[in-house]
Write a structure and sequence with these properties.
Blueprint: E1 20-22, E2 29-37, E3 40-45, E4 51-56, E5 60-63, E6 67-70, E7 81-82
Parallel strand pairs: 1-6
Antiparallel strand pairs: 1-2, 2-3, 3-4, 4-7, 5-6
Length: 84
């Protein structure tokens, strides 16, 4: 499979479910995409102490078939973190 970026649109947005989610920087791991909820991508990181993020779709930078990259830093991601 090629590592070329795959354009994301409404017809293939479901392809990113269960894929790794990363941000800007090497240490920016948002876990795995869990679901698409309206205009938001829901990711979950961790099994015991879960970090759950609700990222707007417009923050997707690219998708390579394995990983969804968001154009957001670890510090910026705090505003999208949800407690459950």
């Amino acid at each position: 499979m090629s590592t070329a970026d795959i354009p994301i649109n409404d017809s293939n947005i479901q392809d990113i479910i269960k894929k790794e989610a990363r941000g800007l920087g090497d240490d920016t791991d948002f876990g795995e995409v869990q679901e698409i909820l309206g205009e938001y991508i829901i990711t979950k990181k961790g099994n015991v102490s879960k970090d759950i993020f609700h990222f707007p779709k417009n923050l997707i930078e690219r998708f390579d078939g394995y990983t969804v990259y968001f154009k957001i830093t670890k510090d910026e991601s705090k505003q999208y973190k949800r407690d459950y």
